[in-house]
């Protein structure tokens, strides 16, 4: 079974989307490491650490979402309701 080739614009959007997600994870990690390394405290430090963690989590979510978009068709799955049909 051959798969149809993807449209170049769609492929480009997926690559850019995953790239942006990876960059978001990296920026979030850098913010967290800077906050810990420089010992940022108080309200500003809390915002920085929370923002860094939030960026990393959002980037991870969108990275997984972008990887899921690359899979063209879901595979066959077992459904309990189809067992009774035999």
UniProtKB/TrEMBL annotation:
Transmembrane feature ranges: 15-40, 46-65
Keywords, alphabetical: Membrane, Transmembrane, Transmembrane helix
Highest taxon listed in the record's lineage: Bacteria
Keyword Membrane applies: yes
Protein name (Swiss-Prot/TrEMBL): Uncharacterized protein
Species assigned in the record: Microbacterium psychrotolerans
Taxonomic classification: Bacteria, Bacillati, Actinomycetota, Actinomycetes, Micrococcales
């Amino acid at each position: 079974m051959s798969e149809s080739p993807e449209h170049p614009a769609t492929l480009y959007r997926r690559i850019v989307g995953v790239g942006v997600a990876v960059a978001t994870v990296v920026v979030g990690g850098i913010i967290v490491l800077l906050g810990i390394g420089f010992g940022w405290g108080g309200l500003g430090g809390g915002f920085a650490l929370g923002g860094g963690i939030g960026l990393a989590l959002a980037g991870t979510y969108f990275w997984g979402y972008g990887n899921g978009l690359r899979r063209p068709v879901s595979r066959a799955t077992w459904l309990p309701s189809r067992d009774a049909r035999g």
